[in-house]
Structures are given as structure tokens and as C-alpha cells.
Design goal:
The chain is an alpha+beta fold. It contains two helices and five strands.
Length: 158
Amino acid sequence: MSDPSPVAPSVSAVSPGRASGRIPDLNWQDAHRASIQMRYSDIDTNHHVNNGRYGEYLENARIMLMRDVGLWARGERTVLARMELDYVQEIRAGQDLIVESLIERLGRTSWTVVARILADGVPCAFSRAVLVRVNPQHQPEPLPEWAREALGTLLVRP
């Protein structure tokens, strides 16, 4: 007797070199780029990057973005309020990793970063993260104009 349950498509069903429909076609050419160093401990027994490491890669890229636009040097504090992550294609041991990030939205106290992880130039994951600016007591604070200007250089454009 055959099993009537649907079979989920395998990760390899994504065409190499093409972004999946789960990764929006944005102005990635304008994105902040962060090179990520893969570590041996990132690899699991299937010889691909463990799914838990993707969040670390994205976190490192957000910190580099904050550093590169000047928020880090000014002592800005942010907390991660929400993160969505779509796994599109596996990342294999030894691939070169780049995270490209754009600012999707600037709110009153928060900003939304969309990012994609590329392995050897192939988009493998898409993320949306909401960061909230907080004061030393971890209470939300409005984004100052200088931060809006710094982040505005990376805005998603039509």
C-alpha cells in the first residue's frame, strides 16, 4: 500500500544560482555586505551548516552593518524583537559566505533588516529582523535623526 501523505520537496529542488521565490527580488546591489567565516563546528553530520548557525551569521552581519554605518561607535543599543528565517538551500562545508542586508523599514523606535545569506554566490536563506533601539534600562527609545540618515543609505528601493 502506498503512503498517501504528500512529500515535501527536497532542499536540492532549488535551482543552483537562482533565488527562490522565498527570497524577494530587491535592490541587493545596494546592500551592506558582510563576509562570514564558517567554522568547523558549524557543520553537522550531514556535512552542511547546522540550521542554528544561520541566526548567528545574521547576527554577526547586523553587528557589522551597525559598525559600518556608525551606530556601533556611538554606543547605540538595540535588541532583537523578532526574526523570521526562510531556509532555501543548504550551505555546505567550505563554501564562501556573504550576508547582504538592506533596511526594509524605519519606524519610530525600530528598524527592520532584510538579509539574504549567499554561499558561493547562491542565495540560501532569507531573513527579516526587527530591531528596537533601547535606553540603558532597556526601554524603547525613538531613533534619532542621525541614525535614520545612516540607516537610510541602505533602504529597500522600488
